[in-house]
Amino acid sequence: MVKEIEKVMPVVHLATVVPISKTVGANRIVPAIAIPHPLGDPTVNLKAEKQLRKDLIEKGLAALETSIDEQTVF
């Protein structure tokens, strides 16, 4: 499915398990935090968690803007 979406628009896969993302053919892969909390960390304070989320989203947006020729982990 990733390959079909990529024909129309670039896609970023925020992944908790990068090898699985590679196996399914995701082209732009951004490692996430952990399986139960991919975009957060409940062990840190709210301000730190908001910054963590912001950083991940910014990394994903930068990945969308990046021209690639092969699978890339950002």
Describe the structure in your own words.
With 74 residues, this protein is α/β, with parallel strands linked by helices. It has helices at residues 2-6, 18-24, 46-65, and strands spanning 12-15, 28-31, 72-73. It has one domain (2-73). The protein has 3 helices and 3 strands. Strand 1 (12-15), helix 2 and strand 2 (28-31) form a beta-alpha-beta unit. It is globular, with a radius of gyration of 13 Å.
Output the keywords.
74 residues; alpha/beta; 3 helices; globular
Q: Rounded to an integer, what's the Rg over CA atoms?
A: 13 Å
Spatial sequence of strands, sheet with the most strands:
1-2-3
**Number of helical regions:** 3
Helix share bin: 40-55%
Unreliable stretches (pLDDT < 50, length at least 5) are: none
Amino- and carboxy-terminal Cα gap:
21 Å
Global structural class? alpha/beta
Total domain units: 1
Succession of helices and strands: HEHEHE
Secondary structure: number of strands = 3
- Estimate what percentage of residues fall within beta strands: 5-15%
Q: Could you describe the largest sheet, including whether it forms a barrel?
A: 3 strands, parallel
Report the mean per-residue pLDDT as an integer. Answer: 92
Shape: globular
Task: List the topology elements.
Layout: H1 2-6, E1 12-15, H2 18-24, E2 28-31, H3 46-65, E3 72-73
Parallel strand pairs: 1-2, 2-3
Could you write a compact summary of the structure shown?
The chain is α/β, with parallel strands linked by helices and 74 residues long.
